[in-house]
Design goal:
428 residues, alpha+beta, Elongation Factor Tu (Ef-tu), domain 3, three-stranded antiparallel β-sheet
Length: 428
Amino acid sequence: MAGASAALEAAKRRTRVKLYEMRPHKNTPAHTTDKLAELICSNSLGSMRITRAQGLLKEELKFLDCELLAIAEECAVPAGTALTVDRQCFASKVTQRIKEHPLIDVIREEVEEIPEGLTILASGPLTSDALAASLKEFCGEDFLYFYDAIAPIVSRESLDSTKLVQASRYDAGEAGFLNAFMDKEGYLDFYNALIAAQQHPLHDFEDSSFFEGCLPIEEIARRGERSLAFGPLRPTGFRDAERRRPYAVVQLRPENKAHTTYNLVGFQTNLRNSEQERVFRLIPGLERACFLRYGRMHRNTYIEAPKLIESTLQFRKRPDLFICGQLSGAEGYLSAIATGLVAGLNASRLLKERSPLEFPCQTMLGALLARLAGKGEYASIADRFTPIKPIFALLPLLSPEPKGKEVRRRVYAERSLEALRGFPKSLD
């Protein structure tokens, strides 16, 4: 994702790009196609509301004329107030756009060592062993990692429509979700089956640490009987036919524009395949669900960014080497797109002997980059670095702070966009 974004942004600035992709000659544990920008986990790029961190970052990327965000909007499917894409449409369009670009050469081979000369590393959390070893030697630091998991996908025709409600939370936006309402008895049956189900062993990994932002659903459940009802199965914003709030709600999000496949929202898991079928078919409407993709776990790799890089995404010890995407510690697809844009922009500027740009810390993008680099107020943070996603807490505080969360966030958003408007008009 980040590499595709970086390639398009650099080429847009009249820079010739060689884009290396090892698939299909060598696959990763999670990818299933040879297309560029293939979405592995969720097909959602987060909220479009400006009072949400990802919505604000989208507004900033629109201002910056982000190529991948425009393609994502072309491939959008209904999902309330979130930007959710048909993953096949998105990957196909990105791949076509890059292949047809006269300044981008796509080379299908594995890169086993960090190249000399101006380079952007965007190999993602599933970086191949050879390149990971080269990067580890270059950094002089051990890699950090966390377990990541993906949710299962089911076919629409296998679902019982009579038991599902098509709606979005609080009826916001277009009603693209299918929702399975649970009463307390059904929820407890599901909960008890889930915490007792067998998992795949973790013998391929060194320990059992998980990244908080992508916990397997069974791990959330082990935190307490109501943990799911207050988490991914929260019923807020829904009412049944008698206007009562359900005890819990399972949401299914469309995977494509034809609405023939659906993703179980928040159901990333490490359960054995047979257990996924047994337990998840306890959900109303999924009794005969056909699983087109089972949930599974894999290890994600990223560097300890604050010790290694600048907010321009350059390595301190080698300014002609950039890094972006989740490999840099920027969590999520939208962050990958955003950091790819910055890497492509700044690498192009460096090639033209112009100074790389540092984005204002009042912007969501600038604050995210400052956190990655450990700059400003983040310079003194000594805790173990874990991947960071856009959150309002990254932004510098207002004084005085406006009262009310929505009001406060809107003021932050207005300040962010104003700071961006004051940025250099020419980003070439």
